[in-house]
Specification:
homodimer, alpha/beta, TIM Barrel, Double Stranded RNA Binding Domain, globular, Citramalate synthase (chains A, B), transferase (chains A, B)
Chain lengths: ~525, ~525
């Protein structure tokens, strides 16, 4: 079993994707999930490009990771600058990350036409930067940018670049197929040449999917001797995206006799795929390999009867091995056993309620068909389970709310002068409370009104803070009357939790998610 | 230049995709388009499976195709039945299609466990069916089902099956990677073995994408000697889909020195991709190789300056060669030249206003920092430019609006009982209009009120329809007070356009995007 190391670039290359913007909290939650999945290296981004990235490296240092190493990303020192005087390298060291990845040029024309310096200076920049970072006690990956185009144009120079990195002590030299144009047979041949030229040097591979071959190119590199694979969850990335690290891992583990995260963790594959997509405010494409909802679904007339008699003929892998399910069952919670396990992780013992499990599964299925998604809404799921078990006691009940948004005059497109006011009428036990809250937006106003109404009864609400608010329009092509899904993340001093609300009305969807977030928080607090 | 024949299975295997259902007219329009594109064979479906397919073959016989041949799809004769007595083969002949494709089993266990007959009988079914159809003067493709799994399990039997088809006169033997589990190196090795075993026999390849390698597997087969490639437009198909015929064609033409449709027709690639997707009521995925909207889009901070100096380093192919365009995401309209070009594409001549270009760029930059994104909001960008040029005349001005959302009682999480009502006060020239609209949600209510207020003055508003409504929360980790970005897509009979609004208040952001969508539509309509 060849051990192949996994290097995730979702937080850096993935975030380059059109349509993806991750908050600091998003990034930290993705780190947590990838660590639990068993990824070896998680690239966090540029440690000094903006306040969010600086804060990321501060926060992530305090996280108790059980397996993964965080990598800070940057470039070799600048031309004409010694590594000890280079601000970029200082930022990498200052990030506190145990691993650093520096990108350097290996295509002669990139050096002379884009970087505007000499080939010798480029070699110096690589050699001295790697040596400097190694001397700081860091694990160093050298990302050989445009390596395959560079090798085709000038093999001697491209090899000289990676040899410089190798001799300077780079722990891994990751060959980057930067513009995504190479095909598997080219990648395999070139990686083999490098492996022969640098015996004993760990090599890695970083591919983009512009020719539709990113996964195959990555596998071809492994066949030729690479033992580190870079990629992003679901293949997110700029242009057509990066190699999908999840598909690569599944192919390596299930078809090429390699070990990446191990068979046990591999069952998290579909969950990781869905979690990261949801955190990016995207969906996993239905037809995504291994993790898509249709990946193990069958409808072909030709096959229907054959599947029953000979399932292995129509499943290239067991769906359970990657945490997916055969046929139309969309959710991670498709099977009773996994629902029981999920419930246990929320502190709810479903095993003692075997008779109710099917009804709960049916309810989840109906809700998911209506637009709910429980992948990132543990709080709402826990409340749903408690309702089915008769263990749910509402802390308050709504009589009515009214939200008013007032706006005056056109004051230009950057205007922030609209005011929102929410009045809610709430019952706690036999008491009735009326409270009004204001906010910059209608949901903030509702949140303020609700807290004001119940704070006397439930002071724990003051410990809770809304930290994330996501809106997704489902069936977007029906315009403003489409179904809206709102996902809210709330935290108190000990944990954070997600809740979900769905409605044709964006305010009502927000309210439902808000109520769940407070209810679940109060339940957790024992209120 | 090796000539590689293209065989499209969109109308048969593509229609197996979850979510795709094509009408007869849809199918005929796709045939017409694929024929113009230069595809060699178009598989039409089973000629007798249902009335729609029967009608298809009748109708398509009457179409004046300039290049493509239609193929009818079916199976070998049934076990124990002579070909001349087999209804399926009779239907194929009766379809009037000049080519027929018959699928047959080549995996020993499929024969004994699924088909429930002997290996010898399976060989007879293949041999006699091919010979029978050849005797009718048809071009015959033999689809060797499960060939790669079959070969791995019992190479002698798998080879005996394709040898039987070859000796009976099959024009092409297309090796099918039916369950999608094989990897490129396996495909290449096995196809090479078959090519050596059957010298002079045309071979084809049919792949599915379950391992994320369908395109690469297809290219590997071509390297090993296959000269016919099967696939579907955009890779549509059951489970995770088939090999994307378009990506395969582009890779073969641009990277492997082969000819499929020729360089001239290759420029239709993006158009074909969009046409077929739209006909299937789907969109081309933004990140699709070659034909997606992001396939040649750039925004990475690392690359921005390099692209300008050395474009070939970040484009693996010329976008024009496949009918796509390079796209600088507007955040990179940092340069005056690209802003002028973008304006020209919107029909606005900035070149005549050199003095204002810098102020416009500064404004765009400030707005993008505040949360605006013009990547998908050409309508708002055009209005912004017109405002700077003094060419913008507002069609109406807002005095005020008030939106009220009322909700009563907790009626469960699937409740849709909230009502929204919007009242707006608007001035058109010197007249004041007050109008109230209702809606399932607050934005729908505002939209209805606005249309009601201005319809008498601007009847063109009735031609416009909101078709898409997206909400993104920026800086999500500040909770419900975060900045909200709303992007709306609107269309009239001739075009569609995007507009964007940003505010701390989700209703105000929606209003701003809504106003831009109507203003731009009226400007386009000359109102």
């Amino acid at each position: 079993m060849t051990r192949i190391f996994t290097y995730d670039s979702t937080l850096r290359d993935g975030e380059q994707s059109e349509g993806i913007a991750l908050s600091l909290e998003d990034k930290l939650r993705i780190v947590e999930r990838l660590d639990a999945f068993g990824v070896d290296f998680i690239e966090g981004g540029y440690p000094a490009s903006n306040p969010k990235d600086i804060a990321f490296f501060e926060r992530v240092r305090a996280m108790p990771l059980k397996h993964a190493s965080i990598a800070a990303f940057g470039s070799t020192c600048k031309k004409g600058v010694a590594p000890e005087d280079d601000q970029g390298l200082a930022d990498l060291v200052g990030s506190g990350a145990p691993a650093v990845t520096i990108v350097g040029k290996t295509w002669d024309e990139q050096v002379t036409r884009a970087l505007l310096t000499t080939l010798d200076e480029n070699l110096r920049m690589i050699r001295e930067s790697v040596a400097y970072l190694k001397a700081q006690g860091l694990r160093v990956v050298f990302d050989a940018e445009h390596f395959f185009d560079g090798y085709k144009a000038n093999p001697d120079f491209a090899l000289a670049c990676v040899r410089a990195a190798s001799e300077a002590g780079a722990d891994s030299i990751d060959l980057c197929e930067t513009n995504g144009g190479a095909l598997p047979h080219e990648v395999e041949e070139i990686v083999r040449t490098v492996a022969e030229a640098l015996p004993g040097q760990q090599l890695g591979i970083h591919c983009h999917d512009d020719s539709g071959c990113a996964v195959a190119n990555t596998l071809a590199a492994v066949r030729a001797g690479a033992t580190q694979v870079q990629g992003t969850v679901n293949g997110f990335g700029e242009r057509v995206g990066n190699a999908d690290l999840l598909t690569v891992i599944a192919d390596l583990e299930l078809k090429m006799g390699c070990t990446c995260v191990g068979a046990e963790n591999l069952r998290q594959l579909t969950g990781v795929s869905q979690f990261v997509a949801a955190t990016c405010n995207l969906s996993v494409p239905t037809h995504h390999p291994y993790t898509g909802a249709s990946a193990f679904a069958h409808k072909g007339g030709l096959h229907a009867s054959a599947i029953a008699r000979f399932p292995e003929a129509y499943e290239h892998a067991r769906p359970e091995s990657v945490g997916n399910t055969q046929r139309m069952l969309v959710s991670e919670l498709a099977g009773k056993a996994s629902l029981v396990a999920k419930a246990a992780s929320l502190g709810i013992d479903l095993a003692a309620h075997q008779d109710k499990t099917q009804a709960i599964l049916d309810d989840i299925k109906a809700r998911e068909a209506a637009g709910y998604s429980y992948e990132v809404a543990d709080g709402s799921l826990a409340l749903l389970l408690q309702r089915h078990l008769g263990a749910y006691r509402p802390h308050f009940t709504l009589e009515s709310f009214r939200v008013i948004v007032d706006d005056h005059e056109d004051t230009g497109a950057l205007a922030k002068d609209a005011m929102s006011e929410a009045t809610i009428k709430i019952h706690v036990d036999d008491q009735r409370f009326v409270a009004t809250g204001e906010g910059a937006g209608p949901v903030g106003a509702l949140d303020n009104a609700l807290r004001m109404a119940i704070t006397a009864f439930y002071p724990a609400v003051n410990e809770m803070e809304l930290v994330d608010f996501k809106v997704r329009i489902l069936d977007e092509n029906v315009g403003t009357d489409a179904i809206t899904r709102v996902v809210i993340t709330t935290r108190d001093s000990s944990a954070s939790w997600g809740t979900v609300g769905v409605s044709e009305n964006i305010i009502e969807a927000s309210w439902n998610a808000l109520v769940d977030s407070i209810e679940y928080g109060l339940m957790r607090a024992g209120a």
